[in-house]
Amino acid sequence: MLLVNDVKWVETLSFRFGVLGALIADRYAQALAEHGLKLKHVGLLGALDTAPGASQLEIAKLMRVAPSLVVSLADHLEAAGAIERLRDPADRRRQVLSLTDRGRDLLARCTARALALDAELTEGLTPAQRAALTAAFDRLAAAHGLPVRERPVREQPDADPR
Amino acid sequence: MLLVNDVKWVETLSFRFGVLGALIADRYAQALAEHGLKLKHVGLLGALDTAPGASQLEIAKLMRVAPSLVVSLADHLEAAGAIERLRDPADRRRQVLSLTDRGRDLLARCTARALALDAELTEGLTPAQRAALTAAFDRLAAAHGLPVRERPVREQPDADPR
DNA sequence: TCCAAATCATTCATGGCCAGAACGGTTTGG
DNA sequence: CCAAACCGTTCTGGCCATGAATGATTTGGA
After folding, report:
1. Exposure check for chain A: N or C terminus, fewer CB within 10 A?
2. Best CATH choice for the domain A37-120 from the list 1.10.760.10, 1.10.10.10, 3.40.1790.10, 1.25.40.10
3. Model confidence over B40-56: pLDDT tens digits?
């Protein structure tokens, strides 16, 4: 049994993050299929929710994806009536995207489905473990430039930072 | 801002697991490139470390991957001198794989590299948070059938299970 | 003992997903 | 007023991985 610093390769956080991420994404994608959506479709809806009225290029940057991919994603979502495409009158090159009511509803359903999966994933974890997970994910998300909501600090509201 | 149960979609564990998993895997893959390896190559080395002397089919099941993929991965690793392929004399259909010294060395390097990334990822977390995080990942890995080492229990060594 | 079915590894064709190049329409700034 | 930059779109190509088809070997009855 090969050990480096007392840990095996398969016990490495880097390895597990990749594998579990793919596994969980797969499970979620399967659940999404019944809405006729792929993961990135919901990604676009979500991006549009945090950046309302964004252009396709802005969405592409937010999603870290080629602009050409946004085209096909938006095509599908538009055909499904989830988003609206509007030429910006001030700059007729830009396509401004916005969620329709149906799109918002869809996103809400997908969010609910994700929360259900979240609950299943964290079932059996202690409260401390759950807290550590969300804390770590918040940190990582912020460190990687993903959208993060500032959570209200509940502890000492202002420990002297000396 | 669309909220379901007070959380946005992008704050969902399911979403973040997928995205961060892919992001981290990407970073690690980049580090691996200097060894001329892809992620799954190291995956094979790691699988072979936890299941020494396994056949290709067993490795495929362990890695949750098509047997045909193991062929090309093993081809590459064998050419690199990291593994040995041996026909099982007792059943000449089976190809028994085993790590060479060079393979073990390679795996050790990759593990060390992963640990360095791990440290960077968890930097800023308190020791308690790190412990809770690894515990949570242990649970998730176990729940998904990934190899997990039983860690020595340090608390009450034998609470009466009545 | 013998043969049909099962098993393992391998090759090959195929598909999904995505980035990058090429193009037309539009805006900007000198 | 025109060249350069910019945005969206189409289309081609690459990478990765699966599944089907093949050949070699083993196994479990009849």
Report:
1. C
2. 1.10.10.10
3. 999 999 999 999 999 99
